[in-house]
Amino acid sequence: MPLPSPRPVRAADKIRVLLVDDHKILREALGSLLNSQPDLAVAGEANDGREAIAQARQLKPDVVVMDINMPVLNGIEATRVVTGELPSVRVIGLSMAPDLGATILGAGAASYLARSAAAEQLIAAIRKVARPQRATR
Fold first, then answer.
1. What is the CA radius of gyration of the chain?
2. What whole-number distance in Å separates Cα of residue 134 and Cα of residue 29?
3. 57-80 pLDDT per residue, tens
4. How far is CA 38 from the centre of its chain?
5. How many other CB atoms are there within 10 angstroms of residue 64's CB atom?
6. d(CA 66, CA 36)
7. Judging by beta carbons within 10 Å of its beta carbon (0-12, 13-18, 19+), is residue 136 exposed, middle or buried?
8. Which CATH topology does 12-135 take?
9. What residues does each domain of the chain span?
10. Are 91 and 84 in contact (CB under 8 A)?
């Protein structure tokens, strides 16, 4: 006997994610991955920290997946601004340099993942950090 289909998630109930990375191919791949999840939706993308701040102000996503090493304005400084101005927005830092994890957490990020993490780890981290502010929506 087939299992019942899961209840569809209304668009308003999806976790809205802003993807920030200076590599377009990575943003596109992460976007495809996240949009394939029934409870996640990519709200927007940014190429650097300055764009991330502007997009976060405009879109007010639930979660920002933020690369740390970017041109113009790095992810650590952008995280300070985003979390300072928009305390309900949760940031997940991504980097190839594990020693930067503590730095981005100190800047206000809710979580940090190495770029070597599995896709399932990123999806789980997004869901975990989104829970507190989704309950207060």
1. 15
2. 25
3. 999 999 999 999 999 999 999 999
4. 16
5. 33
6. 20
7. exposed
8. Rossmann fold (3.40.50)
9. 12-135
10. no
- Segment 79-101 mean pLDDT: 93
**Exposed, middle or buried: residue 73 (CB in 10 Å: 0-12, 13-18, 19+)?**
middle
Within 13 Å and on the Cβ side, how many CA atoms surround 47?
3
In this prediction, residues 10-31 reach a mean pLDDT of: 92
Which residues touch 73 (CB under 8 Å, ≥6 apart)?
A: 48, 49, 50, 52, 53
Cβ atoms of 93 and 79 closer than 8 Å: yes
Rounded to whole angstroms, the Cα distance separating 48 from 20 reads: 6
Contacts of residue 79, Cβ cutoff 8 Å, sequence gap at least 6 = 64, 66, 91, 93, 104, 107, 108, 109
For the entire predicted model, the pTM comes to: 0.88
Tell me how far apart the alpha carbons of residues 126 and 19 are, in angstroms, rounded to a whole number: 12
What's the gap between Cα 43 and its chain centre?
10
Residue type, position 70, single letter = M
Query: CA angle, corner 75, sides to 17 and 64, nearest 5?
Result: 10
